[in-house]
Write a structure and sequence with these properties.
By secondary structure, the protein is α/β, with parallel strands linked by helices. It has a twelve-stranded mixed sheet, with helices on both faces. It has a three-stranded mixed sheet with strand order 2-3-6, with no helix packed on it. The protein has a two-stranded parallel sheet with strand order 12-13. Helix 12 packs across helix 13. It has 18 helices and 17 strands. Strand 4 and strand 5 form a beta hairpin.
């Protein structure tokens, strides 16, 4: 299945150079010697350019703006057919030099109406290409290859819950600027998602399907094993790997850190706007797997026929089973559904960062959320007119009789905020982030907590500090992701501070390098929080009244 492809040069970022290098001058420059590139040529590609070794064969990428770029590098075999629901297998070795010039396939997911809302499509301008089960691919950006230098490594885990997304779905994920600025290696990955990645058939299929509920997370482990075995060839240090993700990707970060198999593969974590402390109960996941079998009209003896079903048809069958599950066994919030399973083997039972995952003791963690993750007024100007009584009414469906007390508590913490802002902050509360920080702070390695409050001057100020906006700041991509930031010097100034702190964290496990105010280690008593805005400052428990008023 294909969606509209973007112009190649827009994809690789040439458009973002227009502010500093006139495009017309490049277009009109011709070298006198066909083998000699002009000094201002910023793309190099050819038969003998950007060739790197991997465990499975040589690959060829290109050099853009001085950064070696490899896209769609296989780290696992095709997961279709007999490999569906199975732990990832290594790709078959190749003998020729494999061109790795374009993004790998997006994992199977429902793409219908992905671009239906013009406002969200404009703001997020998602990047999606071919969708298939041959999706175990990764992308690498590095300043140099095989030069003996050991650079810190960033592995990006994309958002979209455990159901949607890909490694380059928005331009904020692009690794070129961050790699170049920090002299680091940036890796982003695709992996199995949704029912393809997390249907637990172990209860009806037995030993053959013992891994089926967690193959999406096992793909992440396989990508990290690829990094361990290959990243030195790309100038990276396999002993200094930071995993980072946002939303569902943040949950993947904390889950990966807790997995026994991550020992030695992961050294630091960064969870943005999402985390998890427990995986799905296996009784729940096995019941859902049984419902999938029944929705497909199969029995344990005929279960293997699920391998033959086209992936789009399988997603429909699985989602029909999920509808039944939600009616019969409703779960609060974002819990349940097709996601990681606490099988006690790949993913521990109980709370992460407790005695279930002591190997994570030495992994520092950064946690960040945004002020207005779920801002209801973003695309509806009329909602900005709401008053505080209206906010109470709006949240009653979620908080019932506690609604008035919650609004009053948030107004106490933020007396100058508008009703619309208070509404957004309540819906976007930091309860999950605080729980994660508190749990991890019981281990030896430090935790650092941040809260992003910067708001762009777009959509008449209604976008606020929304879900996803901070990603491009961490990766020095505020000009590239101009539909989130507006571009220019104002967001760039904050991005300089945030990306520098992230780079320091990758190198040492401590984000303090001088650009931001002194950033204390988090503990539950002080609750030190780095508030990220045009003027950054550390505040202790800035929303303590609001959090205390929320139901636990």
């Amino acid at each position: 299945m294909k969606t509209n492809r973007r112009d190649f040069f827009k994809k690789v970022g040439v458009g973002t150079l227009a502010a500093t290098v006139p495009f017309a001058s490049h277009a009109s420059t011709n070298p006198t010697d066909s083998n000699q590139a002009p000094q201002d040529q910023f793309l190099q590609i050819g038969d003998d350019i950007a060739i790197a070794e991997t465990s499975f064969g040589k690959i060829r990428g290109y050099i853009l703006n001085g950064v070696y770029t490899f896209l769609g590098v296989p780290y696992g075999a095709d997961t279709s057919g007999k490999n569906r629901f199975m732990a990832p297998k290594k790709p078959e070795p190749w003998t020729d030099v494999k061109p790795t010039l374009w993004w790998g396939n997006t994992a199977p997911q429902i793409m219908d109406n992905r671009y239906a809302n013009v406002h969200y499509s404009f703001a997020d301008h998602w990047n999606y290409d071919d969708v298939s089960e041959d999706c175990l691919k990764l992308n690498v950006w590095t300043p140099a290859i095989a030069n003996g230098k050991k650079r810190p490594v960033m592995v990006w885990l994309h958002g979209g819950g455990f159901t949607n997304g890909n490694g380059i779905e928005q331009d904020g994920y692009h690794g070129e600027n961050f790699s170049k600025k920090g002299d680091v290696v940036f890796v982003s990955i695709n992996h199995r998602l949704g029912p393809i990645g997390f249907t637990d058939l172990s209860g009806v299929g037995g030993e053959k399907y013992k891994d089926s509920g967690n193959v999406g997370m096992l793909d992440i482990i396989a990508s990290l094993q690829w990094v361990r075995d290959n990243i030195a060839n790309f100038g990276g240090d396999p002993n200094n790997v930071t995993i980072m993700g946002q939303s569902g990707g943040g949950a993947k970060v904390t889950c990966s850190m807790a997995m026994p198999a991550s020992k030695g593969l992961v050294h630091k974590g960064v969870a943005l706007s999402g985390s998890m402390l427990t995986a799905n109960d296996q009784d729940y996941s096995r019941t859902l797997g049984k419902y999938v079998m029944e929705a497909a009209g199969l029995t344990p003896d005929s279960l293997d026929k699920l391998h033959e079903m086209p992936w789009r048809e399988y997603l429909d069958v699985a989602n029909k089973a999920l509808d039944r599950m939600r009616k019969e066994f409703p779960q609060p919030g974002f819990r349940g559904g097709f996601g990681p399973v606490a099988d006690g083997i790949h993913i521990p039972k109980g709370e992460f960062f407790s005695e279930t995952s002591t190997h994570a003791e030495e992994m520092p963690l950064m946690v960040c959320t945004t002020f207005h993750e779920w801002n209801p007024t973003r695309t509806n100007a009329e909602l900005e007119k709401i008053d505080f009584d209206g906010v109470v009414e709006q949240i009653k469906g979620r908080f019932g009789d506690q609604s008035q007390a919650i609004v009053d508590a948030y107004r106490k913490d933020f007396p100058n905020e508008s009703p619309a802002d208070i509404w957004a902050m309540i819906l976007s509360n930091r309860q999950g982030a605080i729980r994660t920080a508190n749990a991890k702070s019981q281990q030896d390695a430090p935790v650092y907590l941040a809260w992003f409050g910067w708001e762009p001057n777009l959509y008449d100020g209604r976008m606020k500090a929304f879900h996803c906006i901070d990603i491009c700041f961490w990766f020095d991509n505020t000009d590239r992701m101009y539909t989130h930031t507006g571009g220019g010097s104002r967001p760039r100034a904050l991005s300089e501070k945030m990306s520098s702190s992230l780079l320091a964290f990758m190198r040492t496990g401590n984000p303090n390098e001088g650009s931001l105010p002194s950033w204390p280690v988090y503990n539950s008593d002080q609750g030190a929080t780095m508030v990220l805005n045009d003027n950054c400052e550390v505040k202790n428990k800035p929303d303590q009244n609001g959090l205390a008023a929320l139901p636990s």
